[in-house]
Write a structure and sequence with these properties.
It comes from Colletotrichum fructicola (strain Nara gc5). This protein has helices at residues 52-70, 87-97, 113-121, 142-145, 148-154, 188-194, 249-260, 266-282, 297-305, and strands at 81-83, 104-107, 124-129, 137-139, 157-160, 164-166, 171-172, 175-176, 180-181, 197-201, 205-206, 215-216, 218-219, 234-237, 240-243. 30% of the residues lie in helices and 15% in strands.
Length: 314
């Protein structure tokens, strides 16, 4: 594992259950001064509970998986699953517990409690992650769990939640308003760039201080980009699912606005796109149309007026 290029060898993992390496970590006893036992519990914040929005997202995704199985693009037990954490991820995994998919496998960076419910339901066969299900759970180092080589070989289905997604399917996973760090990138980039199916699930809107739909999670242009349009295959909100595989940028924009944007923001985003397309085509540069002086008008309206809905017309 620690060999340097050009002497690196492939990880000999062909399935989720495959084990490599040793069952212990070698250490020189002369270097051990003492061993301290601790029963101090992890100090982690609980996830927000599932709600109607996250459950709707889960239904859209399960319908998508059923469609892919029906057309022979996925096996009946799907491919190994990767999921981030949060109420949407919990809802998706919980939805699989009540689905017709059996013998599921998981290859992921972290496992949350919902996966244990999936084990108990009999739907999940085996999982690998970095965290009493000894015969069903294999803990690996992050160097292995997040290895692009293995993720690609296994054909993992990667599912993560962003801060925002733009109309061309770029995603911001870390920085609110472009500058305020919400969380680290984690393993989302490792998985979404290399997964067989790269999926971003998000509510279409989030509340601001003055408006329950004050923040649109679908925007003209992301204020920060962690995953590019070349990395993502599917965008899903409680409004619907956009399968953007094989589409041109302008086709992606129309589909994401139609399927994923909240109804109060659909006309705003469509107006932006229509004007951007007209202006850019008129200048002979319409591959991925943008109005550079208006791309962040929704964010400006949020800062100045308290809601993205109060954006002035484009």
């Amino acid at each position: 594992m620690t060999d340097l290029p050009p002497r690196r060898k492939p990880y000999l993992i062909m399935g989720v259950e495959d084990r490599i390496g040793t069952t212990s970590i070698p250490i020189d006893p002369e270097k051990v001064v003492g061993i301290i036992e601790s029963d101090y519990q992890d100090q982690t914040s609980p996830n927000t509970p599932e709600d109607a929005s996250s459950q709707a997202i889960a239904r859209h995704l399960i319908e998508f998986f059923e469609h892919e199985v029906k057309h022979g693009r996925l096996p009946k037990n799907l491919l190994p699953l990767q999921s981030g954490i949060g109420n949407i991820a919990n809802a998706v995994i919980g939805g699989l517990k009540d689905s017709n998919f059996w013998n599921l496998k998981v290859w992921t960076e972290v496992i949350q409690d919902t996966f244990l419910d999936l084990f108990d339901s009999g739907h999940l066969d085996f999982a690998t992650a970095t965290s009493p299900y000894h015969d069903k759970l294999l803990l690996r180092s992050q160097q292995v769990s997040n290895s692009p080589e293995i993720i690609r070989r296994l054909g993992v289905i990667g599912m993560n939640t962003p801060v925002e997604v733009d109309i061309y399917a770029h995603a911001n996973s870390t920085c609110v308003m472009g500058s305020r760090m919400l969380n680290g990138l984690g393993g989302s980039a490792d998985f979404l760039r290399n997964a067989k199916y790269s999926i971003m699930h998000t509510p279409s809107t989030r509340p601001s201080k003055t408006d329950p739909h004050g923040v649109s999670c679908i925007v003209p242009m992301c204020t920060h980009i962690d995953q590019t349009e070349h990395d993502l295959d599917v965008i899903v909100t409680e409004q619907g699912l956009a399968d953007v595989r094989g589409l041109s940028p302008r086709e992606r924009a129309r589909l994401i606005i139609k399927k994923c944007a909240h109804p109060v923001y659909q006309p705003i985003l469509q107006s932006y796109f229509d004007k951007a397309e007209f202006e850019c085509l008129r200048k002979g540069m319409g591959h991925e149309p943008h109005l550079l002086f208006n791309s962040f008008d929704l964010h400006r309206a949020l800062v100045e007026e308290g809601s993205m809905q109060k954006v002035k017309s484009f």
